[in-house]
């Protein structure tokens, strides 16, 4: 263990928020996740979803965005280590992106399960 002193907790939070905002500014997919999050929140208020449905939505927002942050970190580290097209670098980048894709697809399916019946009821209602 190194003798480095850890930064105060407020600085650690500052670094974390800096990472989040950097990802939002620089990554197209994170911008898409943010827009979708806002649309789902709006739909949640319009359709008066239950507390359980809100918890599901919030958990899925967090999961997808957290994985996007990890994916961005993996891509940055791989790019830092090599600029060549190397098989292991490709595996690292592709599997990290795949994790985000799986979470986003599952979130979209859960969203359809929550919102589609409410939309149909409103349309037919």
From TrEMBL:
Substrate binds at residue 68. Mn(2+), Zn(2+), Cd(2+) and Co(2+) support activity to lesser extents. The chain crosses the membrane at residues 34-67, 96-116. It comes from the Bacteria. GO terms for cellular component: plasma membrane. A divalent metal cation binds at residues 27, 75. Its main location: membrane. Belongs to the bacterial diacylglycerol kinase family. It is found in: Cell membrane. The active site is at 68 (proton acceptor). CDD domains: UDPK_IM_like. ATP binds at residues 15, 27, 75, 93-94. GO terms for biological process: phospholipid biosynthetic process. Keywords: ATP-binding, Cell membrane, Kinase, Lipid biosynthesis, Lipid metabolism, Magnesium, Membrane, Metal-binding, Nucleotide-binding, Phospholipid biosynthesis, Phospholipid metabolism, Transferase, Transmembrane, Transmembrane helix. It comes from Roseburia porci. Gene3D superfamilies: 1.10.287.3610. It is a multi-pass membrane protein. This is Diacylglycerol kinase family protein. Its cofactor is Mg(2+). GO terms for molecular function: ATP binding; kinase activity; metal ion binding.
